[in-house]
Amino acid sequence: MNLRDAEPATVARRVGDVILAVEGVSLAFGGVKALTDVSFDVREHEVRAIIGPNGAGKSSMLNVINGVYRPQAGQITYRGTKRSAMEPHIAARAGIARTFQSLALFKGMSVLDNMLAGRTLLMKSNIFLQALRIGPALAEETEHRKRVEDIIDFLEIQHVRKTPVGRLPYGLQKRVDLGRALAAEPKVLLLDEPMAGMNVEEKQDMCRFILDVNDEFGTTIVLIEHDMGVVMDLSDRVVVLDYGRKIADGTPDEVRANQAVIDAYLGVKH
Amino acid sequence: MIYREAGQFKTTYASDQQLFPILQDRVFVIGFLVFAFGVMPFIGTEYLFRAILVPFLILSLAALGLNILVGYCGQVSLGTGGFMAIGAYAAYNLAVRVPDLNLIVIFLLAGACSTVVGALFGIPSLRIKGFYLAVATLAAQFFIDWMFARIKWFTHDSPSGNVSAPPLQVFGFPIESPEAKYLFVLAFVCVFALVARNLARGAIGRAWMATRDMDVAAEVIGIRPMAAKLSAFAVSSFFVGVAGALWAFVYLGSWEPLAFDVNRSFQLLFMIIIGGLGSILGSFLGAAFIVVLPLVLNQVPGWLGVHMSTATVSHVEAMVFGALIVFFLIVEPRGLARLWAIGKEKLRLWPFPH
Question: Considering the entire predicted model, what is its pTM?
Fold first, then answer.
């Protein structure tokens, strides 16, 4: 059952206008076409899923949205500003945060430091104040620590806050990755397979965190996931990619019934 | 049991974020500083100050600077000797050409010169990494060696680039006696160690470590690689430049460019690898290992009553020293600082099994 079906009134109120739109995006690496003419939009406060078989171009799509890759064609409109390509620091400044499929945490740093690093853009004091750790620099460290502790409480990782991330088990590292993204107080959160390699309990926890983030902070979420149960339960709308092309777009139920999607996942009889 | 933080509750984030959150650490550090400043000058011998403590402290400062770059920001540099030379010759030129400049100001300005040159030679790090960057910084080393040997303006037209420091004094106090030199250097090193620690645990230190650990993710959360890498080169070169000026003025007295050749760069790199990359304490432990241990090894045959020729002693010393480096790197690749941390972990329970 779709969790969203139980409360259609909230959904209607929650979801706002289009906050992010990609139009006609094409991306190629040499002769390999990762994305071909992909267009879709993301509405404010919604949970938008991108699904597709392996190699469909899902991660490439996220990398285009936050500026790690530059598409050869197409446009990205984010909060009214149209660009032919994003830059990572522009995306970060404008409130787009992301997590990574293969964990990209700062392994030598503690959980606290990883999350505080996520707030880099919100910190203002200059190098000389930091060197002496006086006045604004000291106040800032304490203030941001307070905010980060709220996120640590939210994700239930208090017991490991001072442990170097490299020593944590995989499930907790995934949580820290989410926490680092949340620390930046993003408007749009890109999650690249947040549940890959997890067992059922860990997936349930992660689903709960994602729904809570969406409900409590109103964060717009763009999600890549392979677990169909998770996708159908969490998301408001789903984009389906196959071989770099969009083959379907709509609510989970529409997508599930779409013949092209069934063909892409199950194959076609020849 | 000895090193147990049970019962030390923190009620504010500020108290949890202080320099040494654990009481035992605070007591130990304060006691150590009192000893170093208050007791050592009275009990030390001239040999101890001149041959051991002053060079140890100055090279610790240089190692600290290099550790910021290599250990915290992950950018390998083989140009440290060159940046020390910049500091030394900048201090010399300031002292000779600008009359009546305060010695501390001279050293800080010398560090600033080194900062500019260091940031300049850090630019290749924006495009290349690892071994390739190491080779690029080696170019800095050779270029700087050449510059001070060949461009006469820097050395005041002295042949072969050999120059001497003027008499040292700060606020009217002469820094000539071994004790005075020791205290002067110690004060510098303490202040710089505190600054390094503050930077390392602040926002800029996190930006350095993030760039070191995962540069793509760092960029995605808004840390600009250019700012992080160049600031690491700049701060590191500042430390190294001040250390170079101290080395030349306080330890050597008169020097030539050869004092800062590529061997110095390697020596400093070995110090931080053995001491512990990305650790303030490790810089000191590594410097102690490289500077002090050979001197101790040299004395061992005498203590044991074994008669050897001086040549044999120095050969044995080199062999034992090399073997010890290999031994420590096998036992703990992350350096002496890591061994120290493991020791502290063990002391939480010792002498009880659990």
Answer: 0.90
